[in-house]
Amino acid sequence: MVEVIPQPDDAGPFAWSANGPRVTRCFTRRGTGASRAPYAGLNLGSRVEDNPAAVARNRATAAAALGLGEERVVYLHQVHGADVAVLDSVPDREPVADALVTTTPGLGLAVLAADCVPVLLADEITGVIGAAHVGRPGLVAGTVAAVVAAMRACGATAIDAAVGPAVCGACYEVPQQMHDEVVALVPEADAVSATGTPAVDIARGVLAQLRALGVPATQVLGCTRESDDLYSYRRDGRTGRHAGLIVLRFNSS
Ligand SMILES: [Zn+2]
């Protein structure tokens, strides 16, 4: 059910991108962009104290690579919850939520991450798309189930998902009690760190949640903490954010 695709080594803004019959999905990489250290590269996060002008230029670059104007991509004010914003147009302000759903062609959806798991979902047949940001709290809160339910409420019947680069289990050490709380709810997230201490594997937990919901998934490999071409809060603390981006195209070609 899970297909693993290594990251291509190219010079574009994307670590991975895919064009389905109606939907384009991609995960950005750090690469080159307008931001300077400690955000250097294509930082798309607007809440990390980077220069707003640099972030705006980077967001324009990412949107253009998707074939969209920058004003057509919706970002979120992410709060590690399970709320889903269902949109049919660009809102006046960034929704406070961790997932987005739309059926509107030409409306790009973005989720930001720097170790957490970006998830891009689509039903290519009915034309329902979604994006979710899932960290440890979201894994426990049920963000994946919430976005899938919202998509199904919009008419989706055959969703598949792309799970983006995230911190791997070996790099995500947590206190024993935290480990136990997560694993009690999502046993598949059980992991051991590189030094043999308790850890959690959020991406593996997300994949298990998708599988339980009947949603086939593709995992894009790449540990954020181990790859200099991805942003990692665990590695760097003060740093930027890469993104998962998805859009339902106007035509079906
Ligand atoms: Zn790792």
Automatic annotation (TrEMBL):
Keyword terms of this UniProt record: Copper, Hydrolase, Metal-binding, Transferase, Zinc
Catalytic activity as recorded in UniProt: inosine + phosphate = alpha-D-ribose 1-phosphate + hypoxanthine; adenosine + H2O + H(+) = inosine + NH4(+); adenosine + phosphate = alpha-D-ribose 1-phosphate + adenine; S-methyl-5'-thioadenosine + phosphate = 5-(methylsulfanyl)-alpha-D-ribose 1-phosphate + adenine
Top-level taxon in the UniProt lineage: Bacteria
Keyword Transcription regulation assigned: no
Keyword Transferase in record: yes
Stored InterPro entries: Cu_polyphenol_OxRdtase, Cu_polyphenol_OxRdtase_sf, Cytotoxic_necrot_fac-like_cat
Gene3D superfamilies in the cross-refs: CNF1/YfiH-like putative cysteine hydrolases
Listed PANTHER family: PURINE NUCLEOSIDE PHOSPHORYLASE LACC1, UNCHARACTERIZED PROTEIN YFIH
Role played: Purine nucleoside enzyme that catalyzes the phosphorolysis of adenosine and inosine nucleosides, yielding D-ribose 1-phosphate and the respective free bases, adenine and hypoxanthine. Also catalyzes the phosphorolysis of S-methyl-5'-thioadenosine into adenine and S-methyl-5-thio-alpha-D-ribose 1-phosphate. Also has adenosine deaminase activity.
NCBIfam families referenced in this protein's UniProt entry, alphabetically: peptidoglycan editing factor PgeF (TIGR00726)
Family assignment from sequence similarity: Belongs to the purine nucleoside phosphorylase YfiH/LACC1 family.
Protein's recorded name: Purine nucleoside phosphorylase
Gene of this entry: pgeF
